[in-house]
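Re: that chain you flagged

S.,

Sorry for the slow reply, it's been a week of failed gels. I finally had a moment to sit down with the sequence you sent. For the record, here it is as I used it:
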Amino acid sequence: MELPDRALVVGLGMTGVSLVKFLSRKGCKVTVTDAKPGEELAPALAALDSTPFVGHFGSHARQDFLSHPLVVLSPGVDSGLPLIADARRAGAKVIGEIELAAAFIEEPIIAITGTNGKTTTTTLMGRLFERAFGDVFVGGNIGNPLIEYVIRGTTAPYLICEISSFQLETIERFRPQTAILLNITADHLDRYPSFEAYAAAKWKVFENQTADDYALLTRDLSPPSRLAAKTLFFSTRQTLQEGAFMRGGELVVRVGGQEFSYRRDLSPLVGIHNSENILSVLLCAHLHGIDRDVIEEAIRDFKGLSHRVEFVREVGGVAFYNDSKATNVDATLRALESMGSRVILIAGGKHKGGSYRVLEPVLDRVAGLVLFGEAKEIIADELGALVPTRIEKDMADAVTRAHGLARTGDTVLFSPMCSSFDMFRDYKDRGEKFRTLVEAL
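Prediction finished late last night. Pasting the structure tokens below so you have them in one place:
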């Protein structure tokens, strides 16, 4: 990609910092705009101490969007903002960080998207490929921006990238050699006008692939149109002639006329949702020629990630689990499916749109629902008549209430169904606070 002499970076989070550094090194005069005031951006500004740029903070100036030929959006910046539409009408090229980075990358990219399971799958895939091939790059929407790979200037055999719907909105030529779509369920309906619009963003991960590439997706989904890439499915519900599937207590891969099977209990990860995640990893690994022994070692050794149905401790015969990463209803549904028969569910946070009645099929195992946060009344209106429900003012009271409701043999599951931004910095902050409260019981 040929870069212009001026570029606007929208959003100064971790990715924004990397974008400013990259564009500046490429000779662009960089302007940064962020709606947050400068004092809230102090760590980012400190990281750019030696990098030349112009910063406009506290609000967005329309002239910035009209006067730069290239506008690069950080992840999470809404590509439908009126100022961005103004920039496009003025002739600016508007792209996201993923599109910019990919223009400077020749190495094969494995892109993983989906509503739930992206980070677990990306991390497991990265560790497996690292065992097989050495120093792979793992990043994207998971901590390490893809543009950082370009900045560091070294070569990795594979790039394993988590990609969000927000990042996919602005791609033009981004082409992963292997693209994986884990699932699509209602999420981010506070951002998208409809579920269909959200789903369309997810399907974009396949749009630039060719017949030389692989498209891997759950058998639960049907592509809206024929995919150009070689398409293989994985499923926990169906036996497949080719692809990956469950058979009793085994995870089976059929590719190239061969069949490979792995014990499901080889992995310590619980739940049918993690079976789906592991199936996608197994299928991808075999397509890339990784030895069975390496695959088994990686699956066995991966203990999972924090804040994802994570056991905290047992108190008086009651097991407490932290699932703070469950920021949508489907994630909580999947967590409940992996639990026993009597669960006290703690939920609530910032409402993201969509219905909580998705939980109805598993509410028979919920003995009590304890709610707090911005969405507590909305959830109570939808589920309060179906399960005994208590509303509390904050997390501390919710944990105390759940502890009081639980009896020996029960599980207390903190699985919020909502984002954390009403009361916490992020889902990690929320999960750590839950863990601290449970440790204090």
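What I noticed first: Residues 249 and 265 are 8 Å apart (CA to CA).

Talk soon,
D.
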